[in-house]
Amino acid sequence: MKRGVLILSPFFAPNLGGVETHLTDLCEYLCRNGNKVSVFTFQPLTSSIRAPAFERDGNLEINRVSWFGHDLFHRLQFSFLLEFLYLTPALFIFCLPMLYRVRNRIDVIHSHGVIAAFVGILLARIFHKKCIVSIHAIYNLNERPVLARVMRNVLGASDEVLVLAKKSRLELAQAGLDARKIKVFTYWVDQENFRPEAKGQCKDSIGLSGKFMILFVGRLLEIKGVTMVLEIARRLTFENKVAVAIVGDGPCRTEVESAARMLPNLKYAGSVPNKNLDVYYNAADLLLVPSLYEEGYGRVIVEALSCGTPVIASNRGGIPEAVDSSVGLLVEPAVDNFISAIGKLYRDRIDLAEMASNCRPYAEAHFSETNAQIIVDAYQ
Question: What is the pairing mode between strands 242-247 and 212-217?
Answer without folding.
Answer: parallel
